[in-house]
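Order emerges. For instance:

***
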Amino acid sequence: MILILVTQGDWVVVLLHINESEKSAVGIDIEFSKKRNFSALMAHFAPQAEQDWFAKQADEEQAFYRCWCLREAVLKITRRRNSENYQV
């Protein structure tokens, strides 16, 4: 059995993996929402197709954190932190 506990402020995520014979991977990212220049950040790290998607979203803040947290979770799974991995 594998138990993983992740905390960030008042948030807690617990993962329990019971069947160790099966391979699995989980990435988690928790961010607290705050006002930022979301368009500028997207232009800095996201590929053009993702920027285009972002520009069409009604809720800029929600769209940014969806992209950012997904990207960070994938990076944590792969445990690689180079620029190639930002193409999620």
Q: What stands out?
A: The chain has three helices and two strands. Residues 60-78 form the longest helix (19 residues).
